[in-house]
Amino acid sequence: MNVMIDLCVVPLGVGVSVSPHVAACQRVFQDAGLSHQMHAYGTNVEGEWEAVFAAVRRCHEVLHEMGAPRVSTSMRVGTRTDRDQTMADKISSVEQKLAPAQ
Amino acid sequence: MNVMIDLCVVPLGVGVSVSPHVAACQRVFQDAGLSHQMHAYGTNVEGEWEAVFAAVRRCHEVLHEMGAPRVSTSMRVGTRTDRDQTMADKISSVEQKLAPAQ
Amino acid sequence: MNVMIDLCVVPLGVGVSVSPHVAACQRVFQDAGLSHQMHAYGTNVEGEWEAVFAAVRRCHEVLHEMGAPRVSTSMRVGTRTDRDQTMADKISSVEQKLAPAQ
Amino acid sequence: MNVMIDLCVVPLGVGVSVSPHVAACQRVFQDAGLSHQMHAYGTNVEGEWEAVFAAVRRCHEVLHEMGAPRVSTSMRVGTRTDRDQTMADKISSVEQKLAPAQ
């Protein structure tokens, strides 16, 4: 089963700057060979369910290894059986609706 | 690694009433033997990482089997290495802070 | 317009224990006279849209006043026009579906 | 108080395709003159608290007007008092950490 997620990891107990932790997660997704795209308040990741959630678990482990005693992640998790749809498909589908109005 | 999650499954394409789908997920958590507690806008689940996320995957599968072509779940995922803390611990920790003020 | 939310406030830069901050938010909802119910990974709040979101804003302000330089909240926000439904209604609607199976 | 949010609106009872609804929300943010950026599983919006949440409310109203009897939105809401940080700043802060490793 394919899945698309959007996640935002928040390490607690490491101060205010979390960009090193976010960067570490980007490397986790890259090392896992998963399609991913960072935005200003999270990261989109898509792939096979087990591979995606193994990477999410690895993010938590890496952040704990970096010294965060606590990690709280917020996620959206989307699956569909009607058709395949990539991250690019979802954006272009909305943009087609926007085009006539502009 | 132990994990506590809060999740809210939203099946799309099945109309407005989603309570049968939420009930099906409660049964998934129960069948998995996972500690879980439903509230008005989601469900807390705690346990070992792999068991919890296998149940989340099973929820998506069950909802698709029930006819939902698309499922969008929002989740919080919390892990900590400093100490064990159950769902009941978290609530009582806040209630202790509230008590003196009342 | 009535709204039901579920929110989880996460203060950054204040260490690992966030229960004083969660307790402060409970007082904000209580002072606002809003129906609210804490669970192990968040709080349900329901009421008129403006009153609910004024309280959410007040939570962020209070946490900053308590010393958190950064606050990241995750929320679910639900509205419906087909009928009124309280937090208790939502839970009992699911429990009715669960009953026959037990 | 400035705020950065990431939101994903999910209309229920309108079938599987939600791109017209997502497009309608993009227009709400554009009409409100708010800085916003869509991604594959949500939209980042930043601005003054009241303006941003007035737009979120408007999204719910517009989706109900488009025929959705129920709307469930998931959001992240971030505020900080230590410094100003735009959506572009957040991304470039992570990219600087990634650069040396590549």
Automatic annotation (TrEMBL), chains A, B, C, D:
Region (Disordered): 73-102
GO cellular component terms given for this protein: cytosol
Pfam families given in the database record: Thiamine_BP (PF01910)
Gene3D superfamilies from the UniProt entry: 3.30.70.930
Superkingdom classification of source: Bacteria
Residue ranges constituting the Thiamine-binding protein domain according to the UniProt record: 6-95
NCBIfam families (UniProt xref): MTH1187 family thiamine-binding protein
Family, per entry: Belongs to the UPF0045 family.
Name of the featured protein: Thiamine-binding protein domain-containing protein
Organism: Marinobacterium aestuarii
